[in-house]
Amino acid sequence: MKDLRYLDDVSSLVLDEEKCIGCSLCTEVCPQAVFEMRDNKAHIVDFNACMECGACVNNCPSKAISVSPGVG
Amino acid sequence: MDKISTSGVNIMSSMDEIALSCSNEPSNPIADYEKPGYKLCSYVDRFMKTNAGVIPIIKTKLGKDDLFSTFYVRCGISRHKYTVAPGLYGIGNPDKNSEVLITANFKLTFDHLRKELADINAWILVLDTKGINVWCAAGKGTFSTLELVNRIKACKLEKIVDHKRVIVPQLGATGVSAGDVKKLSGFRVVYGPIRANDIPAFLKNKRRADKNMRQVTFNLYERFILTPVEIQIVLKPALIAALVLFIVSGFGPGIFSFSGALERGWISFFALITGIVSGGFVTPVLLPFIPSRQFALKGIIAGSVLSIPILILFSNAIKGVSGFAALFLFSVTISSYLAMNFTGATPFTSPSGVEKEMKRYIPVQLVCLVISSGLWIYSAF
Hints:
The complex is a heterodimer. Chain A is globular, with a radius of gyration of 12 Å. A two-stranded antiparallel sheet of chain A has the order 1-4. Chain A has a two-stranded antiparallel ribbon with strand order 2-3. Chain A has helices at 25-29, 55-59; strands spanning 14-15, 35-38, 41-44, 65-66. Chain A has 2 helices and 4 strands. The mean pLDDT of chain A is 92. Chain A has a single domain (14-66), classed as Alpha-Beta Plaits (2-Layer Sandwich). By secondary structure, chain A is α+β, with helices and mostly antiparallel strands. By secondary structure, chain B is of the alpha/beta class. Chain B has 2 domains: 29-216, 3-Layer(aba) Sandwich (Rossmann fold), CATH 3.40.50.11600; 221-378, no CATH class. In chain B, 53% of the residues lie in helices and 12% in strands. Chain B has 14 helices and 9 strands. In chain B, helix 10 packs antiparallel against helix 11.
């Protein structure tokens, strides 16, 4: 979201680009446009927009993404 | 004899009238589906026989009762038992090639979806999310891979459609793994748009969503519509707080006085209301316009701006600087706490961020509350 931003540098999102197989499902499910595809690999382009909802983690077929939020 | 026959004729003619007016009433084909002990739902238009049983076809127009219920639920009234039965429904004239849209069994969600689907033929598979909307249920684990797979099997979806595809709302992805659904049910998950009103365009565009359809928004209306529930949630604690305020306000030179409790309790009650309005309504609605990214700090800023003019208005009734400071601190603290609470209702705050904020601000809020009470009692002397 561009007009409303939350705290920077808090998300526990990690993307292992080596494991990425380029299916682009993470760019589809992320509601905050955190990912973009470049050269058939997913890249984090807006890390601080991540709200740790876990949609990308659930749907990544190669387990290349993880988030580990606390209790919230 | 004569008398009897006339009255007999009269009776006959009046009965004819009744019979005539009865037969003029529009026939209700839905009534054929009535069963003793069951009640037909007002959103059902008709029923359709399929290979997998009789399926209700639902209306795409909301009725008066739907709109009234929406209003109540938005105000927080019985919003925890506002559900539709999980299972398969149809919209329009669905057939074996129609899409299958997955949704939650919160009636607000169900209504929101069907009202956007006029002129569309589709199946709607409602998951049992215990009356919770798609995103929250996905986060809580009721809108899940397992529930979707079990519901597909229970409804015999393979007998309803020839294709092997279900459209899951994008926000359901938090609880659904497309890969696991495919493995367990044979159905491929296609993630649909976030908002129901983008579904017609999504379907027309060969099930492709553009970038806007994939991003959440939180505009003025979307923030405003959440505030009645925010206020409703704090009503009960606020009532208890008000009682405590009247008691605390009674402490003074004569240990405890009822006149003091009433006089000073009344003013502190206004300070409480100011804090609630500031944190539960003003901060959410004006969210992007209030400086700082930290909700607790947004609440402090909004609370300060609101409480100062109100306290000045009541300045005749407040004794000295200590009384003024006590009420100011109290309003601001309540506002800060409620604003921080609103992080749970927004679609852009991360749990890690909220945790960081709470660790920082809850101790501050507690200390402020203690200082405020001390100052308030002190100001009575």
